[in-house]
Design a protein that fits this description.
- The protein is mostly beta strands and about 250 residues long.
- It has two domains: about 100 residues, Alpha-Beta Plaits, CATH 3.30.70; about 110 residues, Pseudouridine synthase (2-Layer Sandwich), CATH 3.30.2350.10.
- About 10% of the residues lie in helices and about 40% in strands.
- The chain is built from three helices and 13 strands; from the N terminus they run E-E-E-E-E-E-H-E-E-E-E-E-H-H-E-E.
- Strands 1, 2, 3, 4, 5, 6, 7, 8, 9, 10, 11, 12 and 13 form a 13-stranded mixed sheet that branches.
- It is globular and about 60 Å long.
- It starts with 17 loop residues before the first strand and ends in an 11-residue tail after the last strand.
Length: about 250
Amino acid sequence: MSGAAGFWETLPLGRGVEVLAHDAHGLAAFNKPAGVLSHPNRIADEPRSLLTVRYVEDGEFFEWGAGAAPQRLWLLNRLDAATSGVILAAASAELAATIRAHFKRKQVRKVYHALVFGHPRMKSELWQDRLNVVKRGGHIRTEARGGHIPAECLMTVVRKTTAEPRLALLQLEPRTGRSHQLRVQCEKRGLPIVGDQTYGDFARNREFAKQAGTKRLFLHSSETTFAYEFGGRRHDFVARAPLPPEFGQFF
């Protein structure tokens, strides 16, 4: 049975994926490295996904094992492949439905960190925008101008460089969950996220990659916190993924 003793220790985890936390009800958080998919879109993707097994799109769960009772793990949220950090899953369909309802009601606190080119004008600021999300050829593109979808994020500067290159480490707490929201909101304010190959500054990305020796997107899901009711009781859940060391090498 999913979630039973030993379940978390025997998961077919993808390369570099770590279990950060799990509770007695079967709720778990993982630390997903940059470059790993939240789930496979086809069989060929399985080796580079959160779990290296089949993913059932209709049910939003991973499935593996032989016999009449296969093991399953329900995915609760997603991160872009290029984004690292906290991602949640549940070991039962009932619990998955409960947690997904919390996401829909915006009862989940999520904190990200981003390394950006440039320095914000203010130490802390509430960013409010109207986005336009378009799907073209199976790809999502988001624009921060001319849209009607509200997007809100609290930005706080963690630290800034005192010399070139001008970089800032930002804490970003989204109040809405739009596709590519943080990347587009940063770009709109002249603060493109380092390594962003879609919305970023391509020339500065190339120069930075030469200095830092990495081409990753410098966006990390650092913390997810919420309380949920299950089995007639309230439960608190906190998951934190440490900031990857490459984020601090210029400070």
